Amino acid sequence: MGPVPLILYRAIGVEGSSWVSDDAVTVHEVRGAPRLFDAALIALHRSPARLPETKRSVIDNFYESAKPLSGKRVLIVDDDMRNIFALATVLEEHGMDIVWADNGREAINRVANDPGIRWVLMDIMMPEMDGMATMKEIRKLPQGRNLPMIAVTAKAMKGDREKCIEAGARDYPAKPVNTPDLLAVLRAWLQQ
Fold first, then answer.
1. Which of 99, 103, 105, 138 is least surrounded by CB atoms within 10 angstroms?
2. pTM (2 d.p.)
3. Taking a C-beta distance cutoff of 8 angstroms, is the pair 22, 44 a contact?
4. Which of 162, 184, 187, 183 is nearest to 172 (CA)?
5. Do residues 151 and 164 lie in contact, with contact meaning Cβ atoms separated by under 8 Å?
6. pLDDT tens across 86-122, in order?
7. Contact 140, 146 (CB under 8 A)
8. Contacts of 153 (CB under 8 A, 6+ apart)
9. pLDDT for the residue numbered 72
């Protein structure tokens, strides 16, 4: 279990002393009601896609204006170019910078040599070096110790989620990936 999330709300234009995160508490300072609503959803691990339309529109409008994922780099690791293309298309619509690898060894090399990577979307079922072995190797790199890696697989079997988390994944959506849920996961890890 990680640190307790603390959301510090300040009205726009109001200043005060800043709070600091530590091992027990992660402090997120927010300004404005839409940002407070978003931070609460992230802290509770709730997807905006599951909200009623009126509440979801508040979050959608906030994301449209704030564009929190824009310019952030994500590494997509998959041996099937169709999957890379599908994920890249969705993420590029949100202004993300996409890099990709079609095998585990190339993914390890990219993480080792590209400090701009903010997340890794990792296919689990790959020949030669599967996603779990790749994540374990990435975790050994200084750049990979705290890098959010999200396991993505089409063949979700009982116990696979736990194995992926143990190998270093921070989350585990199954294919086909639900776009709003994936975006919510990326935004949540952006807060960490």
1. 105
2. 0.68
3. no
4. 162
5. yes
6. 899 989 988 899 999 999 999 999 999 999 999 999 9
7. no
8. 123, 124, 125, 131, 160, 164, 172, 174, 175
9. 92
The H or E element spanning position 119 is: strand 117-123
Q: What are 116's two structure tokens?
A: 């701009």
Cα 42 to Cα 186: distance, rounded to the nearest angstrom: 10
Radius of gyration of the chain from its Cα atoms, rounded to whole angstroms: 17
Q: What is the token pair recorded at 147? A: 């890098």
The model's pLDDT over 18-77, given as tens digits with 9 standing for 90+, comes to 777 677 777 777 777 777 777 777 677 677 777 788 877 776 666 666 577 889 999 999
Instruction: Find how far residue 185's CA is from the centre of its chain.
Output: 4
In this structure, the strands spanning 97-101 and 73-77 are parallel
Give 73-190's CATH code, choosing from 3.30.1380.10, 3.40.50.720, 3.50.50.100, 3.40.50.2300: 3.40.50.2300
Reference 170, options 158, 182, 180; nearest CA is 182
How far is it, in rounded angstroms, from Cα 74 to Cα 1? Answer: 25
Q: Is residue 48 within 8 Å of residue 180, measured between CB atoms?
A: yes
Which residue in 53, 35, 83 sits closest to 187, CA to CA? 35
Q: Measure the CA–CA gap between 101 and 135, rounded to whole angstroms.
A: 13
Residues in the chain: 192
The structural domains of the chain, with segments of one domain joined by +, span 4-66, 73-190
